[in-house]
Structure formats: structure tokens, C-alpha cells
Amino acid sequence: MPTVTEFPPGTPVWADLQTSDRAAASSFYRSLFGWHVPEADPAHGGYAVAELSGTPVTAIGPFPPGMERPVWTVYFAVADIDASAAAATETGGAVLLPPGELMPGVRLAIVADPAGAVLGLWQRDHDAPWLRDEPGAVDWLELAAPDYEGTFPFYEAVLGVAVSEMRVNDEPYGLFDVGPANVAGATTAAPGVQAHWLVYFGVADLDAAVLRLTELGGSILEAPVAAEGVGRWAIVADAQGAGFGLLEPEAR
Predict the structure, then answer these.
(1) Locate the VOC domain: which residues (predicted)?
(2) Start-end ranges of CATH 3.10.180.10 in the chain?
(3) Is the pTM here over 0.70, yes or no?
(4) N or C, which end of the chain is more exposed by having fewer CB within 10 Å?
């Protein structure tokens, strides 16, 4: 399994869910993806760390103060979280949660880019394993914003990433790059949709996954589509309303 153990600055390092009903959410994702979800751990801020085959995949936790709806949050590794938080405000963003110690050896901040998309900054002394690019694990991360190119200076300054572009179904698609690796994408948000980061989970069979999701009380936000060189995907929501993507990658 592709277990990632090194996270250069600018790369995604984690994704987790904040929800109003942790028990119901745990049951939903356990049934959908086969995660092992233990009881919430007070030492981890009330989050339960979900695993597949013994490797961490994500975590499910409670609403922080002021949150109104369930949401998935994406975190990126940074070398100096104080400098990155300062760069966020200098480039038109905002610091929603100032840098602080989440647990020994781990510092965390929550920021918003100039379009309003929320993300986390993560600095830690020692990297921990994260399962990626397997069915049931995070496969891709994507910024959706009305003018995603307008956010590029923010991400270049805050995360230290480079930016590039490709075509998906003849439409421009932005890429965030760390060295030779494309670590996340960027696309134009649908009219009326607020800027946000979207987490895609890999599935072996998209149609079966969508069917199972609806059986569990989830909903389809955007019907399945396909693109050559990418695969098939759908935008969905869990039973509490948190949006995410399901991606059946094209066979490599």
C-alpha cells in the first residue's frame, strides 16, 4: 500500500472531518470505506483516528467553536508555521486559528486564502505515516474557487509551492507542485459555490460506491463524470452533509 512517510513543505500532510455527530459519521464511513474507527481520544483533541490495514487514513472529530456545518479540512506541511501564517495575511488571506501546539511536537494553524477557502498549516518534529492512493484512502485534494488563479500568490507564499496547468476535458486545471510532484489541484467553482478545498477518496468501483453511499443516507451533489488520463469521479455528501469526492482512478 502507498504509505507516505515523508512530507516536504507544501505537500498535503493530513485531512480530517469535523462533524456534529461523531458516532454517526464513524458508522457511515466505516460502512462506506471499511475504516477501523476507534473511540475518540481526548489526547488527540477528541478525534478518533481512522485506519485501514493498521495505517492512519484520517480522523473524525467534533465541531470547533463557531462552526455551523460538517466539513472536511485539508492540512499542508510547512517548515515555519509562524512565517507561513504571517504570509497568509500579507497575501490577502486570514488567520482563523493562530499557530499553537496541537500535541507535543505538532503545531497547527487554520487559515483562509483570499477567496475564502479554509485550510490547515501543519508543522511537526517527526513525520508519521499516512495511507494514500488506495481505495478508501485520500487520493486527491482540490481547491475550487471562482478565480483560482487569483489565489496562486497566496499559496506560493504560504506553502512554498510552484504552480502549473493542465487540461481536463479541454478545460484549464491548475496544479500545485512540490519539486516534480503535482500535490494538489485547482478548478473553477460552480456559480454560487463558496471557495473550498475538496478531499477525494479513492474507490475501486465508482458506481458501486455511489450506490452504497446513498444506501447509507448520503447524497449526490454532482453526478459522475470522466476524463481521459484521470478516471471517473463524483461529488457527494455524507449523511450529516459534509461534502467530499469519490474518485475511481484510470487504470495505470
Answers:
(1) 11-124, 137-249
(2) 3-131, 138-249
(3) yes
(4) C
Over residues 232-250, the pLDDT tens digits come to: 999 999 999 999 999 999 9
Query: What is the 8-class DSSP label of residue 252?
Result: -
Instruction: Give the three-class secondary structure for 238.
Output: coil
**Model confidence band, residue 64 (pLDDT cutoffs 50, 70, 90):** confident
Single out the residue of 49, 7, 2, 5 nearest to residue 183, CA to CA. Answer: 7
Give how far the C-alpha of residue 216 lies from the chain's centroid of Cα atoms, to the nearest Å.
22
Q: Which residues contact 43 (CB under 8 A, 6 or more apart)?
A: 103
3-state secondary structure of 118: strand
Please tell me the total number of residues recorded for the chain in this structure: 252
Distance of CA 81 to the CA centre of its chain: 19
The CATH number for 138-249, chosen from 3.20.20.70, 3.10.180.10, 3.90.1150.10, 3.40.190.10, is 3.10.180.10
Q: What is the mean pLDDT of residues 2-8?
A: 94
Site of grid cell 481547491: 143
8-state DSSP, 214? H
Could you tell me if 147 and 115 are in contact, meaning their C-beta atoms sit under 8 angstroms apart? yes
* Domain at 3-131: CATH architecture: Roll (3.10)
Most distant CA atoms of the chain, gap in Å: 48
Q: Inter-axis angle of helices 22-33 and 206-215, to 10 degrees?
A: 150
